[in-house]
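Practice problem: predict the structure.
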Amino acid sequence: MHLQVSSPPGTVIGSVEQDWSIFVPKFSIKNAAGDTVLKISGPFCTCSCCGDVEFHVTSADGDHQVGKISKQWSGLLKETFTDSDNFGITFPMDLDVNVKATLLGACFLIDFMFFEQQGNQKGQDRPGMWN
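Answer:
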C-alpha cells in the first residue's frame, strides 16, 4: 500500500509506504525526495477491545520513539453501534510541517486499513496484516 500526500494538489510533499511484515503492521514515512524520515509500527492485534490501539512512530533507524498514532477507545456503546472512531497523533513540535502532514495522511491510511469494515461489518478483526 502506498499513499502520497500533496500540497498544493499536484506537488508531492511526502508519502507513506507499507513495509513487508508477517505479523505486525509497519510503514515508512518518506519526504518529497523519497528518503525515509520516520517509521511506524503497530500491534500484533489491531482490535480495540476496551483500550487504545497504539502505532508507535520512531526515528528512521527505529531506535527512538518520537510519537504515536492511537485509535482511542470510545466506550462500549459507541464502539459497538457506530462506525465512528477517534484518533490521536503525537509528534515533536519542531517536526517539519510536511512530515506532520504526511503523518496525518498515515493516520487516515491506518484507519482505512485496520478500522473500517466493508458494509459496516464489525467484529471481523484479525491479527496483524490479515485484516
